[in-house]
Specification:
OB fold (Dihydrolipoamide Acetyltransferase, E2P), alpha+beta, about 25% helix, Rossmann fold, six-stranded mixed beta sheet, five-stranded antiparallel beta sheet, 9 helices, 18 strands, about 350 residues
Length: about 350
């Protein structure tokens, strides 16, 4: 197993800076997700690691050696593309064997390794089948198997599940993670799906406008995002200006953020928490309850309710203190340490 290290990696394309001094450490055998909105630079970063996009400055190291100046085929990395890039004129077995053939592996050894990989992918006996006869999930497995069959020190995944429907995608997340763990492969995956990153990663690299905003384990990123924009990207869909009556005001909070699922329409006062009164704009059924849009002094906030509420009704929206995220005047998340400094 090899660690991946990026130091001040910068990419300029067509006189435009795409990546700005990226510094990142990926532990051996870990699963790292590059997460962010479209255009943030995550795919460019993955392609730079693979060698498909040249870097303008910085270094990329795999273990103790620099791979920044090497051609893609010399880096010994394996990449699974979003489109899978399978060859339709080849059978399943031929697709899997092709990387081995390029490396001069003898025919009998190729057949043995192809059969073993198909068993690992739960596709035993598929050697002679055309890839055009496979389902989307099966094609994804073959693309993954073709990458794994060369025993790469680093596996790179470019949104490998995005072309699948939701049910298959959820199933293959678990399969892919179990396979990665069993092989102990250092893996970096690009995704724009927050749920996917939270479920699969050991660490998440949140990117914005060609820079890294935050590197953290999933729970830390979800519960303590670096700033308000990161929080909004991670599903914090309500923000309010902090007032003197609000919790965390003394801790230095200027803005409080919270997720809709943590806000309730309830007249029973909380011992500690946020309270806002407003008028129902809309109430929609979500399957496990109702989502309510509330107009609070011209700002729309969202909450949940156990029963439907008619538009126009005046209600009280409440959020427990533990579900509130405090941000300072610069929209940076206030950590527990910073809160203690303010209240000391």
């Amino acid at each position: 197993m090899n660690a991946l290290t990026l130091r001040d990696v910068t990419v300029d394309l067509k006189q435009r800076r795409i990546l700005e001094r990226i510094r990142l450490d990926v532990a051996p055998g870990s699963f790292t997700c590059l997460l962010g909105p479209s255009g943030c630079g995550k795919t460019t970063l993955l392609r730079a690691i693979a060698g498909f996009t040249p870097i303008s400055d910085g270094d990329i190291r795999l273990g103790t050696r620099s791979i920044a100046a090497l051609a893609p085929e010399k880096r010994e990395t394996a990449m699974v593309f979003q489109s899978y890039a399978l060859w339709p004129h080849m059978s399943v077995g031929e697709n899997l064997a092709y990387p081995l053939k390029l490396r001069g592996v003898p025919s009998l050894e190729r057949k043995r390794r192809v059969a073993a990989m198909l068993e690992r992918l739960a596709l035993g006996g598929f050697e002679a089948r055309s890839v055009t006869q496979l389902s989307g999930g099966q094609r994804q497995r073959i693309a993954l198997g073709r990458a794994l069959i060369i025993d790469p020190p680093l596996l790179l995944l470019d949104e490998p599940l995005s072309n699948l429907d939701a049910a298959i995608r959820r199933s293959l997340r678990g399969e892919l993670r179990r396979l990665q763990k069993s092989l102990g492969l250092t893996t970096v995956m690009v995704t724009h799906d927050q749920e996917e990153a939270l479920q699969m990663a050991d660490q998440i690299v949140l990117m914005r406008e060609g820079q890294i905003v935050q590197v953290a384990p999933p729970a830390t990123l979800y519960e303590a995002p670096a700033d308000l924009d990161a929080a909004r990207f991670l599903g914090v869909d309500n923000t309010v200006a902090c007032t003197a009556q609000d919790p965390l005001m003394r801790a230095g909070a200027a803005t409080l953020g919270f997720r809709t699922r943590d806000a309730r329409i309830d007249e029973t006062a909380l011992d500690q928490g946020l309270r806002r009164q407003g008028q129902v704009i809309e109430c929609v059924y979500t399957g496990d309850g109702y989502q309510v849009s509330v107009d609070v002094l011209g700002t729309t906030l969202f909450a949940t309710a156990a029963a439907p509420l008619p538009p126009g009704r005046f209600v009280t929206l409440q959020v427990p203190e533990k579900a509130l995220m405090p941000f300072d005047t610069h929209q940076r998340y206030l950590s527990t340490a910073h809160r203690q400094e303010h209240t000391a």
